[in-house]
Amino acid sequence: MANLSELQAVERPPSTGRIEAFSDAVIAIVSTIMVLELKLPVDFLNGGQFTEILAAFWPRLAVYAMSFVVIAILLINHHMVLRAAPHSTTSLYWWNANFLFWLSLIPLSTSIFGNAPFEPAAVAFYGAILTANAVSFTLLHRCAVMIGSKTGKVDRIHQLIIYKDSFFTTLYALSVPLAFASIYIAIAILFVVPAAYFFPGYVPWPSSWRIPQPRTPKFWR
């Protein structure tokens, strides 16, 4: 006959560990697929072809590097977001699956953009995929916070983070039509958004959007 502690263990809600482990595996596969798309001719070091091949290859490498940074940022923030949920739920599984679906399309959009870096349709498609990733991540973030909320509302700090994420999502969305109007502005947006993650102090946020910084250093967001 099971004792009380065993019954409590059975009834305890599952943690988010399985979601994190599965997501890490998917992200690792996505990163591997993406780098496998970087293919050079076998004789790229021979003779005078090196310069021509390098000129054609560097846009693909630059797009790959940007996509890799975006995935790395999403990975870090994904772990941060799941910390807000004390346990997993069916809705959290589904919102996470939605996020991983759009994440899995980054290698495809990276390949298309890298092979045609100045084609408006390629830039627009890349921007659309990153927009979908940003939207799906924000929805996952909101779901995780609501699970851990004691008031049934998103707390102030997470609300400010969602405001900022929504701003960058809007920039990604603007890159899609701008690709057909001014492709260089669209490409600049695609590079500026991930760069803002590393230089948050240079983003002119309204004073009401500023998040108080803790005195002790914490995991970098």
Structure description:
This protein is mainly alpha-helical and 221 residues long. The protein has one domain (18-32, 57-199). It has eight helices and no strands. It has helices spanning 4-11, 17-36, 49-82, 90-103, 106-115, 120-148, 156-181, 183-198. α3 packs antiparallel against α5 (106-115), α5 (106-115) packs antiparallel against α6 (120-148) and α6 (120-148) runs parallel beside α8. The protein is globular, with a radius of gyration of 21 Å. The termini are far apart.
Detail the topology: elements first, then pairings:
Layout: H1 4-11, H2 17-36, H3 49-82, H4 90-103, H5 106-115, H6 120-148, H7 156-181, H8 183-198
Helix pairs in contact: 2-3, 2-4, 2-5, 3-5, 3-6, 3-8, 4-6, 5-6, 6-7, 6-8, 7-8
**Helix-strand sequence:** HHHHHHHH
Give the overall silhouette. globular
Task: Please report the number of helical segments.
Answer: 8
Assign a percent range to the helix content.
Answer: over 70%
Count every beta strand, where a strand is a DSSP E run of 2 or more residues.
0
